[in-house]
Amino acid sequence: MLKRTLSFLDILGECSYLFFESLKKSFQGKVQSHLILDQIKEVGINSLPLIAITALSSGFVMTLQFGLGLEKFGGKPYVPKVMSLAVFMELSPVFTALMCAARVGAGIASEVGSMKVTQQIDALRALGCSPIEEIVAPRLIACLVSFPILTLITSFLALFASCVVGYTELGLDPLFFYQKIITTVALREFTSGFFKSYIFAICVCIPACYYGFNVKEGTKGVGKATTVAVVTGSVLIFVTDYFVTKLYWMFEAWRQF
Question: Which of 61, 117, 157, 226 is the S-S candidate for 109 at Cβ 3.0 to 4.6 Å?
Fold first, then answer.
């Protein structure tokens, strides 16, 4: 038990070091812009097809489930309200982060792990370059830029899919659907999910870089690091989602008081 606790604290400490050093390098302007743009393309633009499919599918399914379920109690007109709150506050940031954990987290861990195995990271140090500046910081910045944008795209696509199902399957007027969304979603609901995307970006990127840096068993270790990075990122998304949501409602209660 003590050994596991010390191992966990060691991982937490190294991840914290990677995160704060990356922020330090970023604020000092030492990260090259072309590295950031390359990673934004990889993290953001190349993830769009997967995000679009996830958003449309979740919007279709959730609207159908809510609509048919609430119809039994005469609550079908509340579907736009329920969907808009669920999408902006939970579904979009969580689903986007999970898809990126599977794609981006695995890609970062395998790429950094391969660089470790082929001694490219040691070569960077020999040339006087910082691996954090060249590897971690560009990926962290790209995730912090891309995740909120992908979350917004997921939100709008999911609500579009919800509107389509509401019209074709539930008989709800699209204009009614749109008006209910506008009147339901206030700035605080919008910013709640938007803020979560930044937290999830850190939860995906930093553990992936850490496990990539600590590959020890050659190419076999790269596969293990990729798996652990995806699992760790996914678990962190669910855990931090609870605590961020709890803090949000505590803040709302304090503000009303």
Answer: 226
